[in-house]
Amino acid sequence: MTSSDLADYLASETGSTKAEARKAIDLVFGAIGSACGRGEEVSVAGFGKFKVKDVAAREGRNPATGEAIRIAASRKLVFVPAKATKDRING
Question: What DSSP element (H or E) covers 56?
Answer without folding.
Answer: none
